[in-house]
Amino acid sequence: MLNALILFGGVSSEHDVSVVSAKSVIENIPSDKYNVIMVGISKDGRWFRYSGDVANLPEDKWLEDTAGLTKAVISPDRNDHGILVFEADGVKTIRIDVAFPVLHGKNGEDGTIQGFLQLAGIPFVGCDMLASACCMDKVMTNTLADAAGIPQAKWLGFSSYDYGKNPAEYIDRAADYLGFPIFVKPANAGSSVGVSKADDKEGLAVAIEKAFREDSKLVLEEGIDGIEVECAVMGNEEPVASVCGEVVPCNDFYDFEAKYVNPASELHIPARLSDEKHEEVRAAARNAYKALGCSGLTRVDFFVRKSDGLVMLNEPNTIPGFTSISMYPKMFAASGLPYAELIDRLFTLALEKWEI
User: Fold this and answer.
1) What is the pLDDT of residue 258?
2) pTM surpassing 0.90?
3) Spatial separation of the C-alpha atoms in residues 24 and 19, rounded to whole Å
4) What is the CA radius of gyration of the chain?
5) 189 vs 73, which has greater pLDDT?
6) Domain of 185, in residue numbers
7) Considering the domain boundaries, does residue 129 fall inside one?
8) Does residue 40 share a domain with residue 30?
């Protein structure tokens, strides 16, 4: 029996999604192979071992279950190789064999927790620190994709500092180079938090200010008239791709509400593509996965442009959603790998990769 650490919550705009994802992961972990150790991080950065009912995770009800809470942290000392739990009679060490940071967005998907786990010598699910950081930062992702020759939308990236010196210059440059509509995205945020679509210069200025509330750096991208498709990829040296899924958002684009609030968004698995185009997207997903240095798992999102069928990278998600409605587990389930087997396989890949 292996001790599997599930990290959830976090100081992130995606905290509420994380706790729901973690609940689904925990409920699907094979109990005959793994002993689950839950460690939650509150929105203000407090760490606790949680030993209560997993049903309490959504809406942070676990923080109200004080009987199940004990202060705990990951030990950076490789001799401890686990977590330190601060109990009434002293500090207890619990060995961790493998960890799954079910942490979306900042401080969980951006390489910070991955670097900490690498320092601690704890094998973990997902990409390493470098790939996590590069895939989280949209400026870095787009720069690497350009260097690797991966087709994507035209884009511009800049900081709030540079923008603040001459906003009109940046707005004019974006309008001339990208044309409208323009999608404005914080460079480091997920679940479409802070993302807006601008149809003119006035709307662009408003969208930029909104995005800067989430991050000090942002990306502007040309609007693509295309089919939104996603592909789940898993593996280390030899990644495998799932069947593709298609997203038909209920709103103007696949924003936070369309993903998590409004049930009117349509998901089609498999995507409504020709067999040839379907295989092209899967090949593009594996190619992007390797070019960006991914390992363990990543969901790779694309547009299939309607005008010419070009497969264009939208973005990678190194810790994709794992809720009951999330595309990553659904796409692998449609590929013949049920949720519980998927989690087991991800743990196995983590142990194989790190072999510490």
Assistant:
1) 45
2) yes
3) 9
4) 20
5) 73
6) 155-222
7) no
8) yes
